[in-house]
Design goal:
Strands 8, 9, 10, 11, 12, 13 and 14 form a seven-stranded mixed β-sheet that branches. The protein has about 450 residues and is an alpha+beta fold. The chain folds into three domains: about 80 residues, no CATH class; about 200 residues, no CATH class; about 130 residues, 3-Layer(aba) Sandwich (Trna Endonuclease, Chain: A, domain 1), CATH 3.40.1350. The protein is globular and about 65 Å long. It contains seven helices and 23 strands. The termini are far apart.
Length: about 450
């Protein structure tokens, strides 16, 4: 197996740093001399744009040996730190250590949009999708627009080719003009943060060798290569697009399509299995079914801010993140001490921890707060899961925590409160907003005046 290095990880995640270092524990590194630079640990990285930013970081100090730097509490304590998916420590695992692959799949690179439902304010056209999308409206702009219960997808297979080589998806398809039951994974490069990432996928898709003509005005009569039912389409909210696809040798190179077979032989790419594991396990928000979910993160931040302010604390996103991380650590330790096997599902499921012991399974929702914990914020997905599985769910709250405010906030103390089972009817659930879908039929364009008129 190839040795894990900073250079390899920099290429794998497509970060574009001039110099990269890797240490599993995130504490000791060789110094950075070229910028932008990046430091990796087993779970994520800290990207340092300039030398001034690097020198000005008080947490990074020179070690006794001038050939090393020391990050006292590890790079995960740095403000610039972000968690990567798949985590760096796993990218070189052999594929037989991860979940089995589906029978047939391919990757298709497209430009970046939020909704892929055609041009709209703030999401006018695909970005970072090559020369064509820079000058014109890329056909992929409608890839996740439901039309009559179907999604129609387009991508440009090769730089100079306009056909899909089905035999490179499965060798037995060499004499076919189309194939069914294919997983098509769409990949795009983030225009704000860089790195090509999984943005969504079609399950059970029909894939056509030649572009299919379309007369659908809803998608401007653009051709398409793939189609599936809307129930088999998933478009990730922007905040969930964190599963990186490497560039260059061994990754997804210049061609806009990645096939699992070459010359009749299956490729041995270690990054594929973790990506497919994420896709197979994902149960989070889906913009195909609910485009308004793109705003959930913003709404959650606003509600958290309001609760902080109401409790007499200044709202601060960095502090909220630190408190969430602290509460998760406390919760994992709590259930492990009770001899539960604990898995973190916070990225892919509508709950945070899955705790198992013998035949028993608990779904744990974790919350942390500086307040007394009398009110917490819940997302729509968290509410739906509690309604369906409340008898097997636990609400784990770490309240009254103390925070030392600094560039990197430090959290300590606090008391644990458990609600088991997590039955919503035991408390008071108050909505702070609704999205109302109008009926498709039975409406008129004028007021009939037949209703009872109330006083205003």
């Amino acid at each position: 197996m190839r040795r894990l290095t900073g250079e390899f990880l920099n290429d794998f995640y497509g970060l574009g740093a001039k110099q990269a270092r890797y240490r599993e524990n995130g504490v000791w590194y060789h110094p950075l001399h070229e910028f932008p630079g990046v430091l990796f640990d087993q779970n994520g990285c800290a990207f340092l744009q300039t030398e001034a930013e690097y020198i000005g970081c008080n947490e990074i100090v020179k070690g006794p040996d001038p050939n090393h730097i020391h990050v006292r509490q590890g790079i995960s304590s740095l403000q610039k730190y972000r968690v990567l998916s798949p985590p760096p420590v796993s990218v070189l695992r052999q594929k037989d250590q991860i979940a089995a692959k589906p029978a047939a799949f391919l990757l298709a690179r497209i430009g970046w949009m939020k909704y892929y439902r055609g041009p709209q304010a703030g999401d006018e056209k695909p970005i970072a999708g090559g020369k064509y999308t820079a000058e014109s409206l890329g056909h992929e702009a409608f890839n996740f627009k439901p039309i009559g219960g179907t999604l129609y997808g387009y991508f440009q297979p090769q730089m100079a080719a306009s056909t899909i080589r089905l035999e490179r998806i499965i060798p037995s398809l060499s004499n076919r003009s189309s194939a069914d039951g294919i997983l098509v994974v769409f990949v795009a490069t983030s225009p704000s943060e860089g790195g090509q990432r999984v943005i969504g996928w079609y399950r059970n898709a029909s894939v056509f060798q030649e572009p299919q003509p379309s007369k659908l005005l809803e998608r401007q009569q653009f051709n398409y290569f793939v189609q599936t039912s809307i129930s088999d389409g998933v478009l990730l909210p922007s905040r969930e697009r964190n599963n990186f696809v490497p560039k260059g040798a061994g990754g997804m190179g210049q061609a806009n399509i990645w096939y699992p077979y070459e010359d009749g032989k299956e490729k041995n790419a270690s990054w594929i299995a973790p990506m497919l594991e994420f896709i197979n396990g994902y149960q989070g928000e889906n913009l195909v079914q609910d485009p308004s979910a793109e705003a959930d993160a913003t709404i959650s931040d606003v509600l958290e801010s309001v609760l902080d302010t109401a409790a007499g604390f200044e709202s601060n996103p960095a502090i909220r993140i630190a408190i969430e991380s602290y509460a998760m650590t406390r919760a994992k330790k709590y259930f492990r001490n009770l001899n539960f096997h604990v898995e973190d599902h916070s990225r892919t499921k509508p709950y945070d921890l899955c705790c198992t012991k013998g035949p028993s399974t608990l779904f744990v929702e974790v919350k942390g707060t500086r307040s007394l914990g009398e009110e917490i914020q819940l997302t729509p997905n968290e509410v739906d899961h509690a309604r369906l599985h409340g008898d097997k769910s636990v609400l784990f709250i770490v309240h009254s925590v103390k925070v030392i405010e600094a560039k990197i906030p430090t959290v300590h103390g606090g008391e644990v409160r458990l609600l088991e089972p997590f039955i919503l009817e035991k408390g008071i659930l108050r909505p702070r907003g609704y999205v109302f879908g109008l009926p498709k039929t039975g409406t008129t364009n004028n007021v009939q005046g037949k209703s009872t008129v109330a006083s205003c």
